[in-house]
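Re-run with default settings, no changes from the original entry. Doing this only to confirm the output is reproducible before filing.
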Amino acid sequence: MPGAVQVGAPVVVGLEPVAVGLEPVAVGLEPVAVGLEPVAVGLEPVAVGLEPVAVGLEPVAVGLEPVAVGLEPVAVGLEPVAVGLEPVAVGLEPVAVGLEPVVVGLEPVAVGLEPVAVGLEPVAVGLEPVAVGLEPVAVGLEPVAVGLEPVAVGLESVAVGLEPVAVGLERPA
């Protein structure tokens, strides 16, 4: 599939390759496998905060399936993903994290210039920790590496790219 993202293989997010499925990440209430596990990406819905999340080995490869991170569903991959109040696209499509759309993939300005608040917690994409939602969720049995730094979806820090990225102008009430 053109533009499809391979789970478990390096993915270009911004200007830096991203490893999905190598490091364990806590995201929600249910364990989900991202990359190396068949259940992790797309086959089973997982609760990430208050909403179910689908991330998997489907053609979407983290993109065609809606994922809930905090209060809103999020799509990571080839489709727009909603992280907080707005949809966000991570990969080849523009993604809106919060109240403002951000391009994470082919645009260097999209990933790593400003800190962004996603949901009720601030999220740092780059070299800063990122908090998505109120509840940490376990994403798979294997750790996941995103960019050059470990990525935590929930209460853990996440690194995506070289600089922190701000998505949105304000945190949801």
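Residues 1-173 form one domain. The chain has one domain: 1-173.
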